[in-house]
Amino acid sequence: MHFHRRAQALVLTFVATLAQAGVLVAEQSPDFGNKQTSPGNSNAGRRSLQNKARDYNRVPKPFTTAASERASFQGLKTQPSFRKAGLQEAVFRDSSLAGVDFRDANLEMARFVDCVLPAARLLGANCRQIAFRNCSDVCGADFTDANLEMARFANCDLPAARFVGAKCSRITFTNCSDVCGADFSDADLQMARFVNCSMPATRFVGANCRRINFANCGDACGTDFSDANLEMARFANTELPTARFTGAKCRQTNFNHCSITSSADFSDANLELARFAHCTLSTARFVGASLRATTFTSCNLSGADFRRVVFADCSLIDPDLRGADLRGADLGKSLQGGKFDSKTVYDRKTIFPPDFDPVARGLTLSNSSEESTREKRAY
């Protein structure tokens, strides 16, 4: 009895000390029970106490919302549960947080520095203005339906991370070398920025990407923007082979010095007022796309598929049309304000509409790839 009560007193004193120091503590202290222990049974009581303490330390601990703002965690190695915890402006450094549970937590303006968070769960969490820096493993982390407005990810690896339905307006990803397979489907990504990122097979299906910015993203192979809103988006120096833009809203979207090759698909996309400058679009598909007032400047369109496209008031300035398929395309008034003359190259594989005479329009026939000046030009 005496040992049992003394142990309880020591535990409660230790918990109170942690709370006063501003360190997060568990919502519940260990339940050691109220069993009476006789002096003759002190060894059994000691073993019971040790077993309960050990079992308590094995399971994830819930943390309180009180006294947790601006908390600091250094070298955390356990897997505590922070579900619904209030962690505004908290700082995590050099911590291993594999599978950690932050569901519905308040992490506004929190910071994670040099941490690993594989399979972390942040579903529904408030992560507004959160910052992740030098987090080498955020593989499979789940941010579904989280609020990530103005969040920042710098030098982080996020393969297979999930941002489905998340609020990500003005979010920034900088120097993230592995965003392979991340899923932003149905997310709000207005004015988001991806700079110097490698993001093959990333999904933006149905996402609101209005005014999103991609710059110097060397590998965005197979990225899927199907049915996404890309109005006024900007792509600069970005590699997009086999990318999918089927059914996407690309009104006033700007592509500058991009490689969009290997059957990249713009089928049925709305490209009204879009601009392509110095881009390689060889073998790209534009079947059924709306190209009203779209501008192509010094672009390689060799092998591109423009079947059933209406070039309404478009400008094709110095295009390379070798091998392009324009069957069924409406070229009647398509080139207002543009140039379609001797600098426009085509070859015997180019397929024009029946009513279009490339010779009469002054196009240059290329008999072989060696004779074409387009191979000497860097797109």
In short:
The chain is largely without helices or strands and 379 residues long. It has helices spanning 2-20, 42-58, and strands at residues 72-74, 91-93, 111-113, 131-133, 152-154, 172-174, 193-195, 213-215, 234-236, 254-256, 275-277, 295-297, 315-317, 345-346, 364-365. The model is unreliable at 10-40, 52-60 and 370-379 (pLDDT under 50).
Walk me through the structure.
The structure is a single chain. The chain is largely without helices or strands and 379 residues long. Among the domains are: 2-58, no CATH class; 204-379, Pectate Lyase C-like, CATH 2.160.20. The protein is built from two helices and 15 strands. The chain has helices spanning 2-20, 42-58, and strands spanning 72-74, 91-93, 111-113, 131-133, 152-154, 172-174, 193-195, 213-215, 234-236, 254-256, 275-277, 295-297, 315-317, 345-346, 364-365. The strands form two sheets. The chain has a 13-stranded parallel sheet, with no helix packed on it. A two-stranded parallel sheet has the order 14-15. The longest helix is centred in the N-terminal third of the chain and has 19 residues, at 2-20. The termini are far apart. The model is unreliable at 10-40, 52-60 and 370-379 (pLDDT under 50).
